[in-house]
Amino acid sequence: MPLDQIANVADIVGTVLIIVSLIYVGIQIKQSINTLNVNTAHNIAAEISAVYLVVAESGDLSDIFFRGVQGVDELEPVEALRFYGCFHKFYRAFEDAYYQFTRGALETEFFEGISQQFISFNSMPGVQRYWQDRKSWYNKSFQEYVDREVMSVDITEYKLPGT
After folding, report:
1. Which residue ranges make up each domain of the chain?
2. Between 59 and 141, the higher pLDDT residue
3. Contact between residue 108 and residue 140 where contact means Cβ atoms under 8 Å apart
4. Which of these, 59, 104, 131, 160, is most buried using a 10 Å CB contact count?
């Protein structure tokens, strides 16, 4: 076989190997992105669950939480501080979910589920008051999202158990 034919075959084999390598790298990147999305969803769910767990495990905080969502003005100053602290953690977790979603690291289906949960809390007077008092603590795009998407929802369909 002449040398130029060997060179042509080598070029073809080299090109095929490069294409196979690129396909393999593409598959690896896709798997890494999927793993990142799953881990992000897991971490956000754990963060939000941690807020619920703290409230559920503490009779005092459960009482403050229950009364606070109905109206912050009914709380003693220290109770209001605890209520705001709890919702600060909750809002930060949701802000993180929003940030991850807008960056493509959180899937739409998961984000929509969390959004519904968030909207149900925001339907309550005490939480709306928290947002009005503390929204400047959050990034601008998140503030706009909450004001546009969350606070504009018909809140009559949401209700805290026991109210």
Report:
1. 47-157
2. 141
3. no
4. 131
